[in-house]
Structures are given as C-alpha cells and as structure tokens.
Amino acid sequence: MVNWNLILNIAKTHLLTKVKQTSIAALGVTFGIGAYITLVCFMTGLNTMLDDLILNQTPQIHIYNEIKPSNQQPISLYEELNNSIKVVHSIKPKITQKKIHNVLPIIDYLSNNSNVEAVLPQIKTQIFYIAGSIEIGGNLTGFEPIKEVEHFNLNNYIIEGSATALNNIDNSIIIGAGIAEKMSLKIGDRVQVSPLEGGFFPLKIVGIYQSGIADVDAIQSFTNIKTIQRILGKPKNYITDLNLKLYDINIAPQLSKEIENQFNLRAIDIQTANAQFETGTTVRNLITYAVSITLLIVAGFGIYNILNMLIYEKMNDIAILKATGFSGRDVQLIFMSQAMIIGFVGGILGLLIGFGLANFIGTLPFNTEALPTIETYPINLNPLFFLIGFSFAMISTFIAGYLPSKRAEKIDPVKIIRGQ
Amino acid sequence: MMEPILEARHINKYFRKPVLFHVLKDINFKINKGEFTSIMGKSGCGKSTLLYILSTMDTDYDGELLLNNQLITGAERNELSYIRNKYVGFVFQFHYLLPEFSVLENVILPAKKLGEKSIEEIISDGHDKLKILNIEHLATKRASQISGGEKQRVAIARALINNPSIIMGDEPTGNLDSHNADNVFNIFRQLSDEQNLSLLIVTHDEDFAKQTDRIITMGDGRIIS
C-alpha cells in the first residue's frame, strides 16, 4: 500500500526547493548522456565510414572459377600404387574456362536464397589503354551499374559523371582517376581500349572513378556487361564473377562453403578476404564501448554523490517522517523517486544536447581522398543509441539512488532525534 | 471504569555501547484514557529512552508493550509505522517540521500518509487543528518562516491530525521561553480536559509536571513513584 501521490509530492517539494542542487545533479546526467550520444554517434559514424571503405569495395561473397591444379592427380586413382610413395613433378593448373559455367541458372538460384540481398554479375578482364603509341595495362570490369550503385554505393566513388550513364550511352566507360590523369582524359573524351585477344574499341568516357587507393585508380575502369561482352566477343552468358551482397554479413563464411560445394566454384567470403577488416572493426567498437561506459559511469557517480549529500542534509526530515508514521520503504521511495526524476529530466536533456552536438559535428567539413564524395564528418544518428542512453540514465540513477536511499530507509529516527 | 490506553509490562533495556549498561529496569505502568501524565527524573535516568520505546520507534527492548490493549511488541516495522501514524502523536523538544513545506502541509502529512480520508477532508481537518491552536493564519506560510513557539504549536497540530489515542512529548517545552511554555502547557491541558485525550510528557520542568494529573518519577532506570 504505497501512496504514490504523497511520495511524489514530497519528492517534488524537495527537488523544487533545492533547485540549484537538483539542477547540478540533473546536469551531471545531462552531460554524461549528452557526451555519450555525441561520441557514440560520431565514433560509430566514423566506424561505419571506415567499414564502408572495405565493404563497398569487397563483395561479401565473391564467386569465380579459380585456376589451380587439381587436388587429385590421376596417379592417386591408380589402385596398384596405393601403398607406394608417389612423386609428381611440375604440376600445372588444370585447363579450365574463365567464365562460370551455366551462370544464368546459378544467378536465379542465388537470387532466390533468402539470405542474399543481391547477386551482381561481373566480367573482369585485362585490357590495354591506348594513347597514341603508348599502351598502358589495366583492368576493365563489366557490371550492372544500377545494381552496383544500389548495393555497393558506387556513386560514392564516382567523382565526376554518373554510373547510370553507362546504361544510357552505348560503348561508354568510367575510367580510373589515375589513368585519366596519365592520359589527360576528361568526361566526353574517347579512349581506345584493346583486349588481350587484340582489336581496338573506342569508348566514350562518362565518369571518373576514384577509390582512394592509387594503385587501383591507375588501372581500373568500368563499363557495362554488354559492352565488355562485345569487346571480348563473348556471348550473353559469359560471366566471370558473381558478387553477393547478404543481409547478414556473419553468415558469409558458411554460405560461401555451401556454394563452393554445390557448384564446384571458388567462393571467398569477406571475412577470409579481409581478415584485418574484422579485427579493425572489433577494436574500434571496443574503444567506442569503453569510452561510452566510462562516460556513463562518471555520470552515475555524480548522481550518487549528490543524492548522498541530499540525504545527509535531510536526516532530520527523514527522522520526522518516520516518527510520524512513514515507513522505511516510504522514505526510500521518496529518495528513489527523486533520483529517478533527476535521471529522467537529465537524461532527456542529455539526449537533446547529444542530438544537437552530433548534428553540429555532422556539418563540419571533412575531406578525404579515400571517400571523394564525403564532405562533412559522418555521424550515425541511430535511434538505438538514444534508447541506450536513456535507459542508462534511468538505470544508473536507479543504482546511484538505490544505495543512498537504502541508507535513508535504515536511518534510526531515535538516534537522530535524541542526538540533537 | 478506567480504560488503559498504554501499558508497559516488565520493560528492560540495555545499551550495548560503549559498555553494557542496564538503562531501564523492570518498568511497569499503565496510562488510562484521558489521563495527563508527566514523567520526571534527572538527566540520564532513562525517561526519554522509555518514551521512545513507548512511542514504538525503539524496538530493542525486553518486556511487553500494549497499546489499546493490543500487544505491539514484536510487530513488523511497517505495522509499527502504521500504529505510530494512526494512534500516536509525537511532539519533540525541537520543533521538527519539514522546512520546505507549508505549515498546513506539515500538519496534514501524517493524515495523507494514513490515507483514510479524502484530500478535502484532510485539508479541512488541518484547518480545524490549526484553529484549535490559534495559528490558522499561518497555514500557508513556509514552516521555516515562523517563530519557535509557533513551530511547536504546528508540531502539536500535526500530532493531533489523525486523532491519536495518545500524545507523547519529549520535553516539548524544553526549548521555549516561559511564555510559550505556558502556552503549550495550556494547550495540552485543554486537549486533555475538553477532548479527553491521553498525554504522556517527559519533562524536567517541575512547574509543568505539578499541573499534570499524575507524575511518574524515575531514577536510575526504575520508576520511583
């Protein structure tokens, strides 16, 4: 039987008559939560950007036909030599085609897999860029520009022109910034490319690509699938690579194994291809968590201190309340509700301040070679952070208020009254 | 026929710190309804200690305590809080009001805690009690803004708010000048005569004690007379 009305009324009166103390306690929470929100939005924003640097350029599963020696050499099939030592010199890779065999049904099959967000077919080949008598070696990749833009944020790396122009203009190419500079090319110019098999194809430049990795930018160009099939003189079902984007990156290793077994192709998941990526992300996340928890704990101690002082000052009141028939539990609830009110008000203010500061950081200019299209610092205004921040404000004020209020509950009124 | 309000049976109490000390030795007495009793004795004879046991705030004693013929020794803390709230009014030597609250709020707080009446009834009760003590004009003032004598009267009004069975006072006039002390005594006298309220007041003011119905004198932890 708790009279909440009365308890909240007493708590409110205590808080309102000590506005200064109350505000200081609430500000402690506000700054703690505000700093948490700001930092976590900013740090995860940067983390996401750094992750995207990798994720946007590495397919989560890359499927292709690998050229490698057969695992089983014919001699091991010969039963009569089972118990002998076999030495095979100079093993050569097996002759195989570059293209993925029977690719169209495989694309259909993978597209229907519920874990797969998108299947992006690509054709990779070596070419020469021809500038007068000079030939510069390079890579030409054919892909479906719209899908690449949608699933791998290709637009972030196109510093001039647009990827969709590849679809609209026949025989067009997006060329690496490095080659463009070497050959003094700009949008609208034509560049001659020559595949290894020979022949010359003039392509119109509709975009400049910059990944931020100079070695890549010096050789890499993109065109659409049809154009590259035409250059190579291959039919429509000639696809050399399949890139998968998954809904959940964590199932990539397992799925890639299944694909390898099922289709007898090489499938490499992002975790294997970029082992350092995972480590980096984990470490950065760890730092984010460590910083946030520290901030929140500091805020919690502030509240604990103030409430402790408050209770020390209110010893007399506590004794009176108990003498006039308030139970220890009532007294505890009075102080708990003060803590929770401080936590609630401070927490909400903290969320607002954090939101404001994070947005402010989001307007600061930030230029990097690696991400040519990013102009301001990235921030990640994930509602989850606000939820965590608010919950922590409530939980930490609960804990910080619980201990002092437990003390208030145990105060013996006789000691206080007689002690005076 | 005399109806006992409060009865103490074989109450013994020890202080354990700093050394074991037998404060109260086999205390037995009864307070009847409407009786205005004072407890006298030298400092350190245990009279306040006894009062706090009788008030149910101190539970660390041997023996039995009965309020309205009901044994309350060994009751739960929450139950004791309820008993204190409903049946016992307490007036301290120092006023002990909550300084942040208005006079009226201070008076009606125990009634709100008891929660037996609607808030309107409680407020009107509060005004009635303030009227009895002639301090109705202070109702809206902050408790920290009124004089010492007024504070003690507010404290008495608060003790009365739940119409308790007994009012206990621990030297309620000890901190007041003679004028205000007389005033407080007259209020007690009046409550006893007009409302048949039982009072148990610890005091070492002889003039005060002489005017009460009955004096319990204590010495060395025993009741002498």
UniProtKB/TrEMBL annotation, chain A:
Keyword check for Zinc: no
Membrane topology: Multi-pass membrane protein
MacB-like periplasmic core domain boundaries: 22-261
TM region(s), chain numbering: 24-46, 286-312, 333-361, 381-403
InterPro entries hit by this protein: ABC3_permease_C, Lipoprotein-release_system, MacB_PCD
Family as reported in the entry's similarity comment: Belongs to the ABC-4 integral membrane protein family. LolC/E subfamily.
UniProt protein name: ABC transporter permease
